[in-house]
Amino acid sequence: MFKHPLFTKLAALGAVVLLLMVGLSMIEGVVRDRQRYRSLTAQSVADSLAGPQTLMGPLIHSACVESWDEETGKGDERRMVERRREFRLTAMPEQLKISTGAAMEERARGLHKVNTYTLKAQVAAQWGSLAGLVPQSTLKNSRMHCGAPIVMMAVGDARGIRTAQFTLGPQALALKPGTFHPAYSRGLHAVLPESVRGKADGLAATLDLELVGTERLAIVPLGGNTEVLMTSGWPHPSFAGRFLPSEREVKKTGFAATWRLSSLATTAQADIAEGKPVCAGGLDNDPRSPEYGTGSASQGGPCADSFSVAFVDPVNPYSLSDRATKYGVLFIALTFVAVGLFELMKKLRVHPVQYLLVGSALCSFFLLLVSLSEHLPFGTSYAVAASACVLLLAYYASHMLGGLTRGIPLGAGIAVLYGLLYLLLQLEQTALVVGSIALFLVLAAVMVLTRNVNWYGVSSQGGTPRRPGAPATPPAARPEAA
Which residues have a Cβ under 8 Å from the Cβ of 391 and sit 6 or more positions away? Predict the structure, then answer.
């Protein structure tokens, strides 16, 4: 039974499909490699310019030491030893208002482009009573010593700081690099006069900051009440983090978003006071530490809340090409079914090598797509690659199936498949339902077309199909039935 021509043909077609699947997997590997190269490009730009930025602050802190004398030993060996306790006092702003505007600029490495931005931010902070900066003794007769109060602003990558101006009331303070904070060392700081310690009526400060970053900006809601207004000319923001904007407006010309948060809704103040890393990453003092970037507030991890905006490219040719190649096996299967229907209904004979060539043309579409999309817009690349493959397959099918009246409908069907695939790539929420309905309709059409086929007769007459263009066997030459 397995030597029957039908089973031999099916086995050959199975081998052809396996070869084509190997080719598709190699094309998928090419797409993944190009995606990896783009990631390396983004990292290269971040290494040369500045990485994703995180803003945290301003806050006031002061390093203190409590020391006392303690008697140790017995008898003649008794002596006084000084003991020390180091701690840090922190004052968080009661009111924090941040207004930012991000101007986008593309940076490129070869064929790959990366979104960078120049951020101009105005940060206004209002502190209430600063009694929390007054140290409290834990032991009787202990000695207290505190360093000068420092107001600091931490950033994700200090290399991105372009200009900064800090004013305390009407007075401009001299800014210096670093923060003198053990957990958030990257940023800037200014030394405050000792008179602010314990000030009952608080103080107000303003920071004007120009900052360069790459692809993403995160902000820590550090105030008792935090209000952030962010605007940009980039029309494709991706809002993430622990809090979405209270208000947002996204247009083709850009976006505007506003966050209004209360300390009742976040533990950011307590977490920053304890020196925890920020959930968005980028503010941990030691990236090699086990907890760096691993915290997740949603999972109760050791990190402080933040929210962020990513300046994403919605038409990433590599992600779209990767999605397209996942439909490659379905494309090959549907095309082979169409050719098989012609072979069955028109009594033709199509060699497995011809199936292999048709499948190879289908596979070449995906390679054309990813290569052209590196130089042209994705829509244009898709149209060029699909048109080239449809014309080639229609031309070849006209000779393979024995005429234009058969080749052109096959080419038209493949063109419809490419159109459906492009539609699926553009859809997000409804891609699955549209694809499922389309596949069901194709299956229904095949079942309707083959509803009267005698499959037992086909399997018992494996040699009856003729070559395209070959004359039918005249009735007189046919053997008589016994």
Answer: 411
